[in-house]
From TrEMBL:
Keywords: Ligase. Belongs to the IAA-amido conjugating enzyme family. GO terms for cellular component: cytoplasm. It comes from the Eukaryota. Residues 357-430 form the GH3 middle domain. Residues 443-568 form the GH3 C-terminal domain. InterPro entries: GH3, GH3_C, GH3_M. Transmembrane segments: none annotated. GO terms for molecular function: acid-amino acid ligase activity. This is 4-substituted benzoates-glutamate ligase gh3.12. Pfam families: GH3, GH3_C, GH3_M.
Length: 585
């Protein structure tokens, strides 16, 4: 896009945030008017029968109940297995638009991802276009394109696609542009990797090849991108462990024999363009030092930015990524969900703790369910975009162009300001699934920050990953924490095991004090047993990710679970335990 196009997109984006309440009412009217065509959709019929279409916002919110994925799952399974139409009633189930495919959700608390239907909606395409092109325009304004340094080391994966019984493809939302019948590869022309790497089927081999191609084009790399911070953590971990092999491959001009995909291997060989002994020597000298701080600008001297999502559960990786990035700015992402676009990041240079998203009044119809930490039930009454208050937290509720109505997105945000009349929010965490959950992601992350400070001082140990599980089968119920530390820690040395146990016991209060009011009250009442802290083998969470990907989770969107709700994941983690300590308090 040229400068004029960017200015036009940014003006549309700006205009959409003015008179947000009016824009929201227009958005809801547009959705309901469209979905009432030809007798409407079956999901809404029981609630809106007897009302003239389209209903106003107040009637809609009064008549249609709040919903979660479980309210749609029968309809979704019916569409996936039998096709998009209820043949008995010849009435669309969720949307009047044709069903194209399904997207996987990016959630990771269970092994099997949810299926999100993707309908061919002209209205939704228009709203998404403004959001995505607006994001690109903001980025180009911050980093104007350079003709000679014009490559992006983009860790992007098309993922494997599966097919439902009804013949619909299932894929990650981020994979759709690469798998659709109208696939547009021009948007990836700046990628330093060939198409064959993106389309590969082995995530570890693809990551290796992406990195190899990025090193071959080291002087041309303008930026490094990945969907989530965890993706880049895996990349730098791979670099630390495989740099010698990468240098050998550059020296010989051929990828490692471990790369089994012949098509991918041939395409990378072409990118390498024959043996590169001088480049290999330069990179070898840099990596031999094993000083990974600021490694990005050492390997890619012209790089201007690194970009990935660093908010929410990704915030834990930010300090380590900053270590690798050195002086290179680490940019945040936007707030785009599989169900719809939610908000845009106008100031991507901000660190995660001050990242704000401007809600997009034309992307969906938004409602906000009040939420408070350490309170089990705040209420079921939502407010609209005009009713949110600065400083308060809410669960986001959306009515989308693509078949979700008053749908609880499962995200908790805090309203921090307004941009024109559109709320600016910070992403806080995933919402608790049920009222029986006693801690939140936020509590867990806070506890791990406290724990990290203690074990870094006492044992020079670095936490690399963690998760929790509430075992309600025990009496009383118990909270379990699974913590992975980096290789080489004293916590993992057999001869130091007794000392490790004593230190873990002393750390109990630093963990428990951060787990929130509900946890503390239930502990004091005896409704909750002693906290169990398990240290697991290094690489356990990486292996879990591979199992999840084998079970259908998209590699490009995988996020390690923080609150585990699946016994299969628990069984996996239990097999990885090095030592467990019960904190009697």
């Amino acid at each position: 896009m040229n400068l004029t196009d960017d200015e036009e997109i940014l003006k549309k984006l700006e205009d959409s945030t003015k008179d947000a309440t009016c824009r929201q009412l227009e958005t809801l009217r547009s959705i309901l008017e469209h979905q009432s065509k030809g007798g409407g959709v079956r999901y809404l019929r029981p609630y809106l029968q007897g009302y003239d279409a389209p209903v106003d916002a107040n009637t809609f919110r009064r008549a249609v109940p709040l919903s979660s994925y479980e309210d749609y799952v029968d309809h979704i399974n019916q569409m996936a297995n039998n096709g998009p139409v209820d043949h008995d009633h010849d009435q669309p189930l969720l949307s009047v638009d044709p069903l194209i495919c399904f997207f996987y959700s990016s959630g990771a608390s269970t092994m099997k991802p949810k299926l999100i239907p993707y309908f061919d909606s002209k209205l939704s395409r228009a709203a998404s276009f403004i959001a995505h092109q607006g994001s690109n325009a903001i980025h180009r304004r911050l980093f104007p394109p350079r003709p000679s340094v014009n490559k992006v080391l983009w860790f992007i994966y098309a993922d494997n696609i599966t097919t439902t019984k009804g013949g619909f493809k299932v894929m990650a939302a981020s994979s759709y542009p690469m798998h659709s019948s109208k696939a547009n590869w021009s948007q990836l022309v700046s990628s330093s990797s060939p198409r064959e790497v993106i389309l590969g089927s082995n995530i570890e081999h693809q990551m290796y090849c992406h990195l190899l191609c990025g090193l071959r084009n080291s002087d041309s790399i303008d930026g490094i991108r990945a969907p989530y911070a965890i993706s880049l953590m895996n990349v730098f971990s791979l670099l630390e462990s495989k740099w010698e092999q990468l240098c050998d491959d550059l020296e010989h001009g051929v990828p490692s024999s471990e790369i089994s995909d012949v098509v991918m291997k041939d395409s990378v060989t072409e990118v390498l363009g024959g043996p590169q002994p001088e480049l290999s020597r330069r990179i070898r000298v840099i990596c031999e030092d094993k000083n990974w701080g600021g490694i990005v600008c050492k390997l890619w001297p012209n790089v201007r930015y690194i970009r990935c999502v660093t908010t929410g559960s990704m915030m834990q990786y930010y300090p380590r990524l900053k270590h690798y990035a050195g002086e290179v700015p680490l940019l945040g992402g936007d707030y785009f969900a599989s169900e719809c676009c939610v908000g845009i990041n106008l100031d991507t240079i901000q660190p995660p703790e001050t990242t704000r998203f401007v809600l997009l009044p034309t992307a969906a119809y938004f409602e906000f369910l009040p939420f408070a930490l350490d309170e089990i039930n705040v209420g079921e009454e939502t407010v609209d975009i005009s009713g949110v208050e600065e400083g308060k937290m809410y669960e986001v509720v959306v009515t989308t162009y693509r078949g979700f109505y008053r749908y609880r997105l499962g995200d908790i945000v805090r309203v921090v300001d307004f941009y024109n009349s559109a709320p600016q929010v910070e992403y806080v965490m995933r919402a608790p699934k049920t009222s029986s959950e006693i801690i939140t992601e936020k509590h867990l992350m806070s506890a791990m920050e406290s724990f990290q400070r203690v074990i870094r001082k006492d044992m020079a140990a670095e936490i690399s990953e963690f998760a929790s599980f509430l075992d309600i089968m025990m009496s009383p119920k118990h909270l379990k924490l699974y913590i992975e530390v980096r290789e080489g820690s004293k916590l993992l040395q057999e001869e130091k095991l007794e000392e490790s146990v004593e230190i873990l016991k002393r750390c109990g209060s630093s963990i428990e004090d951060s787990l929130g009011g509900i946890y503390m009250v239930q502990r004091k009442r005896g409704e909750l047993g002693p906290l169990a802290v398990s240290i697991v083998n290094p690489g356990s969470f990486d292996r879990l990710s591979l199992v999840a990907i084998e079970n259908g989770a998209p590699a490009s969107q995988y996020k390690p679970p923080k609150i585990i709700r699946n016994r299969q994941i628990v069984d996996f983690m239990e097999r990885c335990i090095v030592v467990t300590v019960s904190l009697e308090g």
